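Box 3.1 A note on notation
Throughout this textbook, protein chains are presented in two layers. The first layer is the amino acid sequence; the second is a token string describing backbone geometry. Keep the layers aligned when reading.
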Amino acid sequence: MSNLELQLVKLDNTLDILNTSLVTTAGLPAGTVVVPDSTILARSLPVRDEAAWHDEAEECSPSLRLAASNLDISRKAERIVRAERLPKVGINAGWSIDGPILVEVPPINRNLSYWYVGVGVSYNLSSLYKSNKTVARSRAATLRAADELDAVREEVGLALHTDHVKYLEAYEELKTQRKSVELAVSNYRTVATRYSADMALITDLLDAANSRLDAEQRLVNARIDIIYYYYKLLFTSGKI
């Protein structure tokens, strides 16, 4: 009983520490008590294939979106630098009216109206020599951004694979622990019946009770692992 009471004190202290950390992290008022949703342990969570999680990550992962944005910016910057080496073409059009005609003697009091369209082409010859290094730097930046995107995609993919395997493993663990609880409960009932008939010692009954409690604890931990890895998948894929 003393050991059990000590474990209870330790659990209460751990809960207090975790509650304080959660309240501080979430910016809640001091003294707030965070009550966990215990009904989630009995909630059925979806089991999806790994490819679906990868698709979610491509759309929602902040790290992937940031790397993709950096690659897009680098490509646009490279196109702008390359555009400086191209000739610049300008088109202008207008309408004008002149009068009277003064080149005639005597001057003719008449107005002339006309439209005009022009095309201009300019090219900076110095860009052939100055922009080569700039283009090379821009191209290198684009290649580096592409490599970073591939690296981030690989990192996210490995994390998703690990979390998905652990998620499925947690379900297998749950099946095993359910069977263990059934056996522990059956064993406890048998020992309790024998103890009632003076055919077993109190130590046997205590051992059976401890085995039952241990099995029930492992069952709850298995359910917690399912929830943990499911939300870890949501976090890694960028859904939360």
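The beta strands are 88-98, 112-122. The chain has five helices and two strands.
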